[in-house]
Amino acid sequence: MLGKLIVHETKEQILVGKIVETEAYQGSNDEAAHSFKNLRTKRTDIMFKDPGRVYCYQMHTHVLINVVAGPAETPHAILIRAVEPVAGLDQMILNRSHIKNKFNLTNGPGKLTKAMDISMAYYGHHWSQKPLYISKGININAFEIETSPRIGIANSGEAAHYPWRFFLKHNPYVSNYRK
User: Fold this and answer.
1) In whole angstroms, what is the distance from residue 119 CA to residue 79 CA?
2) Is 118 within 8 Å of 95 (Cβ atoms)?
3) Which of 16, 43, 174, 178 is 20 to 30 A from 104 via CA?
């Protein structure tokens, strides 16, 4: 998914961000996944549906977005952690008006949804349909990708150490980017 584009056609304009960071969650076998041990709740139900759906959830004041990635009844998902703005930058800045450093605009899963005006209303929406969809983008070579353990899941036992965070090397929009 790295290099693909998230496109959100809002009332104001089209907002586009290139995916620069993701995390994988392997459903029932992954202690860090909301669907660990096949836990099926109102919140996780969409993860058990067909792939390509939007699994979004609220964490504190932020909405986080995922792509349902497993076949039906296999609750795998990919969290989109960060995007690099491609189009609609002025509107993204308005959506997060208190941000002074442009690299902090979309360098986290809650930040990107605020900047791109993505809400819980997209729960269950299919990523191939407008107004919110994923487009081709650019191809990324393997040598441009780094991996690390996922972020913010320290209480997930052994799963906290799985190297299932994928991001573009040297991209300043990656969360926790260090120059």
Assistant:
1) 15
2) no
3) 43
Cis peptide before 131 (omega within 30 of 0): yes
DSSP 8-state secondary structure symbol assigned to residue 53: B
Per DSSP, which regions of 37-94 are E strands?
Answer: 54-59, 62-68, 76-87
Distance CA 95, CA 178 (A): 25
Q: What is the pLDDT of residue 109?
A: 95
Q: Tokens in use for 159?
A: 């799963």
Residue 65 exposure: Cα atoms within 13 Å on the Cβ side: 33
Q: Is the pLDDT of residue 29 over 60?
A: yes
Give the chain's radius of gyration (CA, Å): 15
Alpha-carbon distances, residue 143 vs 40, 102, 165 (angstroms): 37, 26, 15
Assigned architecture for domain 5-168? Roll (3.10)
Flag whether pLDDT at 63 surpasses 70.
Answer: yes
Tokens of 127: 């990523």
Q: What amino acid is encoded at 79 in this protein? A: L
Sign of the alpha-carbon torsion through 126, 132, 80, 39: negative
Q: How many residues belong to the chain?
A: 179
Q: pTM, whole model, 2 decimals?
A: 0.92
